[in-house]
Amino acid sequence: MTTYDFDEIVRREDTGSVKYDSRKQMFGAGDVIPLWIADMDFRTPDFIVDAIKKRVAHEIYGYSFVPESFYESVRGWINKRHGWDIDRAWMLSCPGVVPSLVSAVLSYTEPGDAVIVQSPVYCPFFDVIRDNGRIVVNNPLELRNGRLSMNFDHLQECLHEKVKLLFLCSPHNPGGTVWMKDELDRLGEICRSNGTIIVSDEIHSDLIFRGHKHIPTASVSDEFLHNTITLISPGKTFNLSGLTASVAIIPNGDLRLRFLNTLKRLHWTIPNVFSLVAFEAAYRHGEEWLKQLIAYLERNLAFLIDFFHSESPRIKVIRPEGTYLAWLDCRDLDINRTELNDLLIGRAKVGLSDGALFGTGGEGFQRLNFACPFPVLKEALERIRRAAYPRG
Questions:
Q1: Sign of the C-alpha dihedral, residues 27, 28, 34, 40?
Q2: Are 243 and 274 in contact (CB under 8 A)?
Q3: Considering Cα of 359, then 304, then 3, then 10, what sign does the dihedral take?
């Protein structure tokens, strides 16, 4: 068995990395430790690199179709990881989860229709709705007992004839909530009562910590199966965000046909040859690597929580149940947004994601990506402590 070295620090500068090479543009300084955007600082696993190298060695990279082996790898992975047996016919290959959100908006709504989001949430949810002339209806999550939870009473108030879709982030980004079956049951029933389709972004679904279990939204019942669009990708799990590819799982034949017609209209049906290879290798050979990754992330998370509790107690960690993202409650610092960003970026030289960017409920929070080598995380946290609690 291969033992993977997640402590290795890999230099990413001068590779066109958004995370590293845009620091000057993002934060006004090139020397911040970037723990903001959701990609990992670990090497892509060897079995994926080897599969890509093998395809590169062929030296012809013409038009490709999606092979059946690709879809079989998806079926096998989801069945083994999440206990959901999906049919081959339900799957459509897509150029990424965000383009799939766009496809859903264009397939199932008209200009002026509304889409529900549950903020604070992944920023592109807002963008793909507004950029396509639709209306955002917000059903804000509530922080209860250290966990972001749904407000179902308010959700029912949000539903009206113009609401056609609900975007669900499962697991939740930035809060790290892994939705439980009773929560998905209630959500699904409310949406079904109004004919509202659920679009479930499950890109973080493989990154689940001990004591929690990801439940695919569509798997909860036969009724939900035909009212849910499930979006998946190995991009977050295996650090492949630059190789954009995803799958939309749509059991409802009518909804699937409408989605496919949108993909065709947008000319999003020709896949990237290297994305296909990486995607399939990840799902066929990634189980042991992922097991080791999650163990490493759990150690990073335990250190992070203990550090803030003991060294920076006015910054509270909303313990994630999944993802590699920590939602930091900085409100007890009693400073405004500008002052908080100045503390983190200007003084600590650490670049996090400003919570206000995630919508209502994000003010006073920051999102920290702890999928990095432990020495990097430790240095970043020490910088934050020194900035927040200067000693002498």
A1: positive
A2: yes
A3: positive
Q: Could you tell me if 20 and 34 are in contact, meaning their C-beta atoms sit under 8 angstroms apart?
A: yes
Q: Looking at the structure, do residues 264 and 325 belong to the same domain, yes or no?
A: no
pLDDT tens-digit profile of 265-287? 999 999 999 999 999 999 999 99
**Residue at which a domain ends, from 267, 284, 301:** 284
Interstrand relation of 114-117 and 135-138 (parallel, antiparallel or unpaired):
parallel
What is the spatial distance between Cα 377 and Cα 386, in angstroms, rounded to a whole number?
A: 14
Which amino acid does the sequence have at 140?
P
The residue among 72, 80, 76, 87 whose CA lies nearest residue 276 is 72
| Residue 228 placed within a domain | yes
Residue range(s) defining the domain that contains residue 173: 64-284
In this prediction, residues 102-125 reach a mean pLDDT of: 99
Tokens of 9: 């620090």
φ and ψ of 270, to 5 deg: -100, 115
Is there a single domain that holds both residue 178 and residue 203?
yes
Produce one character per residue of 151-175: b if its CB has 16 or more CB atoms within 10 Å, e if not. Answer: eeeebeebbeeebbbbbbbbbbbbb
Contact 170, 179 (CB under 8 A): yes
355-366 pLDDT, tens digit per residue, is 999 999 999 999
Tens-digit pLDDT profile for residues 44-54: 999 999 999 99
The predicted structure's pLDDT at residue 391: 63
Q: How far apart are CA 204 and CA 368, in angstroms?
A: 15
Instruction: Give the DSSP H/E element, type plus range, for residue 197.
Output: strand 197-201
Where a domain ends, among 284, 302, 326?
284
Token pair, residue 356, equals 């206000």
| Amino acid at site 106 | L
206, 232 contact by CB (below 8 A): no
Report yes or no: 290 and 4 within 8 Å, Cβ to Cβ: no
- C-alpha 139/C-alpha 107 separation (Å) is 22
Cα 116 from Cα 168, distance rounded (Å): 9
